[in-house]
Amino acid sequence: MKEFIKDQRAENESSPMVLQVRGISKRYRMGEVVVNALNKVSMDFYSGELAVLLGASGSGKSTLLNIIGGLDLPSEGSLFFHGLELTAASEKELTAYRRRAIGFVFQFYNLISSLTALENVQLVTDIAENPISPEEALMLVGLENRMNHFPAQLSGGEQQRVAIARALAKRPELLLCDEPTGALDYQTGKIVLDVIDRVNRNLGTTTLVITHNVSIAGMADRVITLRSGEVVEDRRNTRKLSPSELSW
Ligand SMILES: Nc1ncnc2c1ncn2[C@@H]1O[C@H](COP(=O)(O)OP(=O)(O)OP(=O)(O)O)[C@@H](O)[C@H]1O
Hints:
The protein is α/β, with parallel strands linked by helices. It has helices at 61-68, 91-101, 117-125, 134-140, 156-168, 186-203; strands at residues 17-30, 33-46, 50-54, 76-81, 84-85, 102-105, 174-178, 206-211, 222-227, 230-236.
């Protein structure tokens, strides 16, 4: 661990800070052209909160989530996880962070088609340090009756719930969801959001959901809006809606 910051609490926060994003920029160079995907972005995330990162296509959401998840590095700026500066961490520390602290859920579920739902989750629990049992993880997402089904025998929403079970089985401190309902129809999308909401409430997992769908912001504690790589709003919802109350 190279650099530490103090655990801070914002005035109106009662939960400890988990993650600090400080002045992060990301530039992609495509020959002569430079794309500024993120421009001096700063934000904090607190333990147990459900945050929605909102923004139109190309606003920089995935770039930010990939940096937060340790899959990519910023061009400048710093990222701290419980005081560990990830942007100055060794490859070994970054790998440990990705393995232990982060659960990823993507738009497309990335399940292994030749393995059952249970076996897909077991892939993670076999190598995790302190996992939830795969059966329990699948129960948490309401798939106790589908454990021995292969992905092709499951609906899109059920496959996404297996992906969520796989992500949460290692008890990640941060669950990062990149457009988790992007490939799903309206009703199925709401079921998946309900599962994410339940995981956040029941396990207390700090959760970041990125979406371009403004309505989904209603279920969040915090809503951070990105536009052209910059934070244009960072607000708390005064009333948090349950996913069943959302409509779009
Ligand atoms: N590997 C890359 N090389 C070059 N440009 C990139 C790369 N990845 C992203 N970009 C550019 O950076 C900007 C932000 O992209 P990003 O994928 O983060 O946006 P997004 O808000 O997640 O969009 P979407 O909702 O469409 O996924 C876009 O202009 C995109 O074209």
